[in-house]
Amino acid sequence: MKKTWLAAARFIGIGWYIGVCIAGGFFGGRWGGRAVDQSEVFFGLLGLAVGVGVAAYGVYASYTLLSGKRGNDHEHEGR
């Protein structure tokens, strides 16, 4: 039962991380566009793209950390 709750907490944490990265990128981009008197839409989409990229990298990094697959560990499997 404890492992189930631990796994659920990890997935909830990853979900929050994804949401915060994407929303933060979008709204940060809009804020940046307003700050430099440029298009909020363009900077919002640029921030959204950056947020999606950061979220994707974070999910990949957490997957490799949680699964134990780091670096070139697969090269030493046969030894």
Describe the structure.
By secondary structure, the chain is mainly alpha-helical. It has one domain. 78% of the residues lie in helices and 0% in strands. It has 2 helices and no strands. The chain has helices at 2-35, 40-67. Helix 1 runs antiparallel to helix 2. The radius of gyration is 18 Å and the shape is elongated. The model has no long low-confidence stretch (mean pLDDT 86).
> What ranges have pLDDT less than 50 throughout 5 or more consecutive residues?
none
The count of DSSP E runs of length 2 or more, i.e. the number of strands, is 0
Helical content band: over 70%
When the domains are counted, the total is 1
Q: Roughly what fraction of the amino acids lie in strands?
A: under 5%
Question: What pattern of helices and strands is seen along the backbone?
Answer: HH
Question: What is the approximate shape?
Answer: elongated
Q: Quick check: average pLDDT? A: 86
Give Rg in angstroms: 18 Å
Number of helical stretches of at least 4 residues: 2
- Termini, distance in Å? 35 Å
Largest sheet: none
Structural class: mainly alpha
